Amino acid sequence: MAAPLPSWNRSTEPFAELISAEAISARCAELGAQITRDYGERAATSEVVLIGVLKGSVIFLADLVRQIAAPIYVDFIGISSYGDATVSSGVVQITQDLSRPIEGKHVVVVEDIVDTGHTVAYLMENLRTRRPASIALCSLLHKPERAEREVAIDYLGFTIPNKYVVGYGLDIAQQYRNLPFIGFVQGA
Length: 188
Ligand code: IMP
Ligand code: MG
Hints:
alpha/beta
């Protein structure tokens, strides 16, 4: 699919809105409250680290952490899947590693979307070898129709249909991450 070139930023065209900015914001508040309940006490004994997966999760992470009322740390990891931009190959490479070790810490991985599940399955496996005290996955979106790997999502924003979505951090050819809502290409 060719990426449409953005000559604008805030109109919904050529996208159809799938999830509004308001709905995302409300869901972030709920997820933040849930994480606060689950990790508030643990934070007193060992560090709680939210790991944002670059670059798609950055906007979600920024909103989510402001809804967590507990002492947390933030770190980032960069990964890239080889192959076509819109189809995950399952071959994953770490392009930027964490800034600090996670051994003995409580980790929450924050992803934008679980599609085939290959990326997150690889990432969780890799992070587990670093012996965190616990590890959980928080994903804004899940496309279950595309699942090829079984992935347990502990905190999920929205389940979506099998459409390629952009906005709120998600891109097509690195564009449209700055849309405030989540949309899909009409007719796609
Ligand atoms: P998976 O390995 O197939 O689960 O792919 C996960 C990665 O592919 C995500 O972290 C996204 O970066 C990208 N991705 C998958 N589906 C979409 C989509 O609909 N829009 C934007 N990026 C997507
Ligand atoms: Mg991603």
